[in-house]
Design brief:
Length: about 140
């Protein structure tokens, strides 16, 4: 586990680009942190690092945004409204685990109990107006 301080959305995205270089097929990234913590900026950086050139937005109303790439795609989930494992099945979440790609999950606190081991956990904390402390567990980005 290692923590990083970023001072802008751009720095947050750059940190994610470095992480993207370490990702493997079927990795699951569990984001922890409230609104406005930088999760979408981080996901933008993940996409850039994976070579995906798309406009990245929060999946709040869609539940999942799919960003196709090669060799890996990125599936960006919002689990804010998910409370049970049955709901995960109903939205087709487990199907995405068979696709070639990486899953990035916002509001993972709601579903992490359904997983025996969390691949990568990223915790976002606001430490100033634009400053964030981002703690990454499960992978070393250097």
């Amino acid at each position: 586990m290692k923590s990083y301080i970023t001072n802008s959305k751009r720095e947050t995205a750059r940190l994610a680009e470095r992480l993207a270089k370490k990702l493997k097929n079927h990795d699951i990234i569990f984001f922890k942190g409230g609104l406005g913590m930088g999760k979408t900026a981080f996901t933008q950086g993940l996409c850039r690092g994976l070579g995906i050139d798309r406009n990245v937005t929060s999946p709040t109303f869609a539940i999942v945004n799919e960003y196709s790439g090669s060799p890996l795609s990125l599936f960006h989930f919002d689990m804010y409204r998910i409370e049970t494992e049955d709901q995960l099945y109903n939205i087709g979440f487990y199907d995405y685990m068979d696709y070639d790609g990486v899953l990035a999950i916002e509001w993972s606190e709601n579903i992490i109990p359904f997983f025996s081991d969390a691949n990568i956990v990223i915790t976002f904390e606001k430490t100033g107006e634009n400053q964030r402390k981002i703690t990454i567990e499960g992978v070393d980005i250097y």
